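User: I'm putting together a teaching handout on how multi-component assemblies are represented. Below are the sequence lines for each component of a complex, exactly as they appear in our records. Could you produce the 3D structure of the whole assembly as structure tokens, so the students can see both representations side by side? Please keep the chain order the same as the input.
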Amino acid sequence: MWERSHNGERGKAVRNIKEIAQLSGVSKSTVSRVISGRGYTSQEARDKVLKVVQELQYKPSAVARAMVSQRTHNIGILIYRREYPVASHPFYGKILDAILATASPMNYSVFVTTEYEMSLRSADFMLEKRVDGLILISRLEQNVIEHIGKFGVPYIMVNGSTDVPGVIHIVNRDQNGGMEAARHLSGLGHRRIFVLAGPQSHRSHHLRLEGFRTYMNGQGYEFGEFDITYLESSTFEEGYRKMADHWEHFRSHPYTAIFGTNDMIALGAMKFLMEHSVAVPGQVAVMGFDDIDAASILTPSLTSVRVDTERMGRLACEMLDKLIRHEPVEETAIELEPQLVIRDSTKRRGEAL
Amino acid sequence: MWERSHNGERGKAVRNIKEIAQLSGVSKSTVSRVISGRGYTSQEARDKVLKVVQELQYKPSAVARAMVSQRTHNIGILIYRREYPVASHPFYGKILDAILATASPMNYSVFVTTEYEMSLRSADFMLEKRVDGLILISRLEQNVIEHIGKFGVPYIMVNGSTDVPGVIHIVNRDQNGGMEAARHLSGLGHRRIFVLAGPQSHRSHHLRLEGFRTYMNGQGYEFGEFDITYLESSTFEEGYRKMADHWEHFRSHPYTAIFGTNDMIALGAMKFLMEHSVAVPGQVAVMGFDDIDAASILTPSLTSVRVDTERMGRLACEMLDKLIRHEPVEETAIELEPQLVIRDSTKRRGEAL
DNA sequence: CTGAAAGCGCTTACAG
DNA sequence: CTGAAAGCGCTTACAG
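Assistant: Of course. Below is the structure of the complete assembly, with chains in the same order as your input.
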């Protein structure tokens, strides 16, 4: 049986401090001091202990350490989504990467979990695991936050907000981004814009649309009109589908541009247009939001509004670390400025169909 | 100071079994039995304890449990890559998602870490954390494996292989996939194919090319010729760059198809072609390998060879769980069959430039 | 500078 | 069916 030969010697490999103490001829206390570097130890003791540690490849148990220090040096990331993908999600995956990249040098290990709507399962799991802190990604229901809040575990929300006051959160200034999008399109001369808006229960989609609307309305009628179509999800497929549903309407009106409240939506719509021989940006300009990787890979590349996911993840870690170490944190709401990224999909001025 | 009001009551929230015992008027042992459901307990005891547990929202410490059971119910994922992205990597991210989706219902929490070439830092970290098992993703150096092997912690390799014998690994049958690609292209009538091959030190790129070559050579000269260009990395940028470098050569030869040993490479090349007004697939057919999400989103959508990342991740979890529980595992090398996915980029027969 | 002892929060035989 | 005790692998005052 393969299993035997592979793991037959398991258990042998795991040493403990007592063994190290015996082998190096000192007490457990001394071994502990040598390894942690805390407290006084003689050069002689250090030499003996380190030699044994080296030889036996002894790795002190972080579990036991966590037990006494009441610190696990683990943090948990909770991503709220109804379904996978999570890690490979074009947007959340980026935030995740930024968190992983920042947490590691800070000596935190990170648990990645997803939570389905309304469920507290993963959250409770993390609580039982005694993580030092939690990073909550995306929208979440109030009850989840209140639940977590009860346990006194520090936590930070990323890319989501809540009505619960005082919760530290890091978000993109989506409203500004929406305004940027409107300014860009109308600046290019587009006067009739077709807007595909993701679920308005979602903070970001709501605010992006808000910003877009605000800018357009502020410009007055002569600067442009726009029609909004609401989508039930923010996926590529839904963007494609809704574009298909409104195809007759679309072609019978003088639209020259499309704005999707995220890139996936915009790409879905663009796919449909290209399949129906509508030139992008020749006949219709298309722009999205998020600036996911696919945006620059595509032909034509997609104009978008970049969200600084790298900074979101980094700040989340840094602030969480402060909370964990009981350092003061000045701000409770961090808002990052998005950035317009102009690419081919809006390059030339659109012409009516 | 915000920090105070937020975390001032920390510590209060974390109860322990002793408190629960006192409040419910039974011993710690009884509380333990009630909560774990192991051993005999009277209905009366159960009622009292559960009531207190409920009221105080008591969550038993997984750390303490791990201490006594010598099982953390945590597994670690080590992704070997020189740089980010990791989670958001179009291919590894999928494997990661599949692992997360499978691990959670099995009651494992998962640590996600990356390891840079040659370093043992993350691996040692996971070892100290006393994970129950490890999943190693991508190629890794022999020394890392030997190092991990010393500790008797069960582990499984995914999408990579090693010379170390007996290591359980789950891989795609890349050679077969390469043959499929060759068969598909030559079956469409392509007689002159330009191959962009990723780093040959990488198992998958090597085998994909091997398979492609094997099929083509087996067909004899009259069935087609191909030229191979080796890339230094397997990225979109490198695919684009190498296509640009060989542009003069390419256009002066009657190539009608391009095969990239992964999708990113193929997409990079395709981007260049489209920027230079080469119609895909009208003039040149393009195909890749992996079937990442972008492949189906693009216009034209990309023909590819699908790797069953979902199954890879799932099997990795299931087998690791068996190893952890000392159950026998039959196979030491799992090879998954890839699947040709035909899309628009090879739809019609290519014409020479 | 070093070691014995207590304790972190649980579980698990063992008596009763 | 229940409780006292020992122990998981460490760290941390406290004596010496």
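A couple of points students might notice: Chain B has three domains: 2-60, 74-172+310-332, 174-307+340-346. Residues 2-60 of chain B form a domain with the 434 Repressor (Amino-terminal Domain) fold (CATH 1.10.260.40).
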